[in-house]
Design a protein that fits this description.
Elements: E1 2-10, E2 21-25, E3 32-36, E4 44-45, E5 58-62, E6 68-72, E7 82-88, E8 91-95, E9 100-102, E10 108-115, E11 120-128
Parallel strand pairs: 3-4
Antiparallel strand pairs: 1-2, 1-11, 3-5, 5-6, 6-9, 7-8, 7-10, 10-11
């Protein structure tokens, strides 16, 4: 099972958890959870006017071995308006535009999508249950 929690944070709201949303999916091959502005395609939906995020920005996919990975999907722009990083404990790893990164099996962490032009972010916590 993969459990996701998402909080949108802007400027003065830093540290607030109001408006947190959750989604989960079983660790079955082909299971997918998406994060973005398009409510018809994503389980976790960000504000529509937050254009630093794509319609479908992040895709969490369960592979044939029951392990999850996250992909920063390429949007319509050649250069992204955001930065994405994976945080696990004290370890922080930037995620390249269009790249796929495996999530730790049986672990927890956070994916942060940071706007490059304003103090706004989308923080997606994950817990990959064994």
């Amino acid at each position: 099972m993969l459990e996701l929690t998402m909080a949108t944070v802007s400027g003065a709201d830093a540290g607030a958890t109001a408006g947190m949303t959750m989604a989960e999916a079983p660790s079955e091959p082909g299971a997918v959870l998406r994060v973005g502005r398009d409510a018809s395609a994503c389980r976790l939906v960000t504000p529509e006017d937050w254009l630093f995020l794509s319609r479908v920005h992040l895709e969490f996919l369960c592979g044939p071995d029951g392990r999850w990975q996250v992909t920063w999907l390429r949007g319509s722009q050649a250069d992204p308006a955001s930065e994405v990083r994976l945080i696990i404990g004290e370890y922080t790893q930037p995620v390249a535009y269009g790249a796929t990164v495996p999530l730790p099996h049986g672990g927890a962490g956070e994916i942060v999508v940071q706007d490059r032009t304003a103090p706004r972010s989308v923080n997606v916590g994950f817990y990959h249950e064994v």
